[in-house]
Amino acid sequence: MKRILIAYGTRFNTTAETANLMADHLRKNFDVEVVNLKQKKPDPNDYDAVIVASGVIKDRWTREALYYLDKLEKYKKPYAMFVSSSYTLSKPVHVKQEYLEKIAEKHGLKPILMEAFGPMLDFTKRMFFTKKLQMKLAGKAFERKTGVKIRNDGTNDFRNYANIHDFAKEFEKKIMFT
Ligand SMILES: Cc1cc2nc3c(=O)[nH]c(=O)nc-3n(C[C@H](O)[C@H](O)[C@H](O)COP(=O)(O)O)c2cc1C
């Protein structure tokens, strides 16, 4: 069975949850490992295909996911990238260009797939006061841009689960016979 690595960087955990949803789809046909890059930095050469993902805060990927992209520069097998980002809902073209295409180009990468998924602003989890405050401010900005109301006691999950499923299906199709 082919081995797939989904390696992610996250600050508020959305990307971890999206990575795990994706893994659930892929596990029907592959051996999938989901890794938080803050805890572990696996060698991509131990896998038949890799997905690298990051949440985007203040226009930036997490440092560990960016560093991990460097490891893919010499990787000869298929790989893909995705981000979790709130601008996915209001400026999807900008998000693809700024958070995916430019990043891939900067690292000299040619992913077989790149996608942006919506954000989650989850106030139900325990977190430091400062992090909650950051999320509240981001929620206000989100409301202004999209007109969608944020609940300060809710999960505010704006991920499109069908898109996540489709990404997994497309990735599977592309790597099945490589
Ligand atoms: C403080 C803060 C800043 C953010 N800045 C951006 C941003 O610049 N662009 C964007 O598209 N989304 C932004 N977002 C939304 C996040 O991308 C979104 O919440 C995502 O789910 C975070 O991923 P993570 O939970 O894996 O860290 C921001 C969110 C917060 C809380």
CATH superfamily of the largest domain: Flavodoxin domain
From the alpha carbons, calculate the radius of gyration and give it in angstroms. 16 Å
CATH class of the largest domain: Alpha Beta
Spatial shape: globular
| Residues in helix, % | 40-55%
Overall pLDDT metric: 96
Structural domain count:
2
CATH topology of the largest domain: Rossmann fold
Largest sheet: 5 strands, parallel
- Low-confidence spans: pLDDT under 50, at least 5 residues? none
CATH architecture of the largest domain: 3-Layer(aba) Sandwich
Described by its quaternary structure, the protein is: single chain
State the distance separating the first and last CA atoms: 13 Å
- Number of DSSP strands? 5
Q: Estimate what percentage of residues fall within beta strands.
A: 15-25%
Tally of alpha and pi helices? 6
Widest sheet, order of strands: 2-1-3-4-5
Bound molecules: flavin mononucleotide
Structural class comes to: alpha/beta
- Element order, helices and strands? EHEEHEHHEHH
Compose a concise summary of this entry.
With 178 residues, this protein is α/β, with parallel strands linked by helices.
Could you outline the blueprint of secondary structure elements for this entry?
Layout: E1 3-9, H1 14-26, E2 31-36, E3 49-55, H2 63-71, E4 79-84, H3 87-90, H4 92-106, E5 113-117, H5 129-146, H6 161-175
Parallel strand pairs: 1-2, 1-3, 3-4, 4-5
The site of flavin mononucleotide has 21 residues, from helix 1 and helix 5.
Could you walk me through the main structural features you see in this protein, from its secondary elements to its overall organization?
This protein has a five-stranded parallel sheet, with helices on both faces. The two termini are 13 Å apart. It is 42% helix and 17% strand. It has helices at residues 14-26, 63-71, 87-90, 92-106, 129-146, 161-175, and strands at 3-9, 31-36, 49-55, 79-84, 113-117. With 178 residues, the protein is of the alpha/beta class. It has two domains: 3-120 and 157-175, Flavodoxin domain (Rossmann fold, 3-Layer(aba) Sandwich), CATH 3.40.50; 123-155. The radius of gyration is 16 Å and the shape is globular. Strand 1, helix 1 (14-26) and strand 2 form a beta-alpha-beta unit. The mean pLDDT is 96. It contains six helices and five strands. Helix 1 (14-26) packs across helix 6. Bound molecules: flavin mononucleotide (FMN). Flavin mononucleotide (FMN) is lined by residues 10-15, 55-59, 84-87, 119-121, 134-135, 138. Flavin mononucleotide binds at residues 10-15, 55-59, 84-87, 119-121, 134-135, 138.
